[in-house]
């Protein structure tokens, strides 16, 4: 298969909400359990639905807030998307992924009005070295699963707890549909939690994330995602993975993932 997902059908309801039914391919397979989807492509498919949903030229996505409600099963699932706060300058959209009658991801997205603010433009996050001259990082394949097998990683600057890793892949998000740059890159952001792990395999503690928060001060461009990542573990069972998000043109946003630290075995 040359895509993460296959679309079964997409239905527009009388109230404007959209229900899309999909089936996952092996390329979505997660790293913690072989029968679940990785959160990275699951984020991407939600963003693909946002691309289709009531498109407007005067607004763009500024924030995506995703809560992981449980295991994300492989196989057939659906995403229902609707507006829960309409508006001319700000609009809040809710997307719920469910499988087998149970919700597994709840996502809320702010779409925000765009305008020319070049007079006050300014960034503090610096540009980092791109992937072109960096070696392929094969160690990422110590993580199992079809999703990790689908991506290419490059780095020359990482250690336990901190580093910069560049990612790309050659797959479409949905078979037969064009994958936008936003969908391509959002579909890899969740990988941040596995690239600067504070432990050496075999892990003493699992550290799955319960959410993924993404804030975008501009839309990303291209097919390379740079994750400038810091992972921190508290002493009472909770951790945090934070990343500055880069494309080949510089920083474009940030992500945060709250972690539940669980003794393995």
Automatic annotation (TrEMBL):
<protein>
    <submittedName>
        <fullName>Thioesterase family protein</fullName>
    </submittedName>
</protein>
<dbReference type="InterPro" id="IPR049450">
    <property type="entry name" value="ACOT8-like_C"/>
</dbReference>
<feature type="domain" description="Acyl-CoA thioesterase-like C-terminal">
    <location>
        <begin position="131"/>
        <end position="259"/>
    </location>
</feature>
<dbReference type="InterPro" id="IPR049449">
    <property type="entry name" value="TesB_ACOT8-like_N"/>
</dbReference>
<dbReference type="Pfam" id="PF13622">
    <property type="entry name" value="4HBT_3"/>
</dbReference>
<dbReference type="InterPro" id="IPR029069">
    <property type="entry name" value="HotDog_dom_sf"/>
</dbReference>
<dbReference type="Pfam" id="PF20789">
    <property type="entry name" value="4HBT_3C"/>
</dbReference>
<dbReference type="InterPro" id="IPR042171">
    <property type="entry name" value="Acyl-CoA_hotdog"/>
</dbReference>
<feature type="domain" description="Acyl-CoA thioesterase-like N-terminal HotDog">
    <location>
        <begin position="30"/>
        <end position="112"/>
    </location>
</feature>
């Amino acid at each position: 298969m040359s895509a993460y997902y296959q679309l079964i059908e997409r239905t527009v309801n009388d109230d404007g909400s959209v229900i899309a039914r999909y089936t996952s391919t092996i390329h979505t397979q997660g790293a913690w359990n072989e029968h679940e989807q990785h959160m990275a492509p699951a984020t991407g498919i939600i963003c693909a639905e946002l691309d289709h949903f009531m498109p407007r030229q005067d607004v763009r996505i500024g924030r995506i807030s995703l809560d992981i409600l449980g295991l994300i099963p492989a196989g057939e699932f659906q995403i229902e998307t609707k507006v829960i706060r309409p508006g001319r300058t700000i609009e809040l959209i809710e997307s719920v992924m469910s499988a087998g009658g149970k919700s597994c991801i709840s996502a809320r997205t702010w779409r925000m009005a765009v305008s020319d603010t070049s007079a006050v433009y300014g960034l503090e996050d610096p540009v980092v070295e791109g992937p072109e001259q960096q070696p392929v990082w094969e160690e990422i394949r110590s993580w199992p699963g079809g999703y990790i097998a689908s991506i290419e990683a490059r780095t020359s600057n990482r250690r336990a707890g901190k580093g910069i890793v560049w990612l790309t892949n050659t797959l479409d998000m949905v078979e037969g549909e064009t994958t936008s740059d936003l969908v391509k890159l959002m579909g890899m952001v969740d990988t941040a939690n596995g690239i600067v792990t504070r432990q050496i395999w075999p892990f003493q503690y699992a550290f799955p994330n319960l959410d993924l928060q993404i804030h975008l001060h501009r839309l990303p461009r291209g097919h390379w995602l740079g994750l400038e990542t810091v992972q921190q573990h508290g002493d009472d069972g909770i951790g945090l993975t934070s990343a500055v998000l880069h494309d080949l043109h510089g920083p474009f946003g940030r992500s945060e993932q709250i972690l539940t630290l669980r003794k393995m075995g």
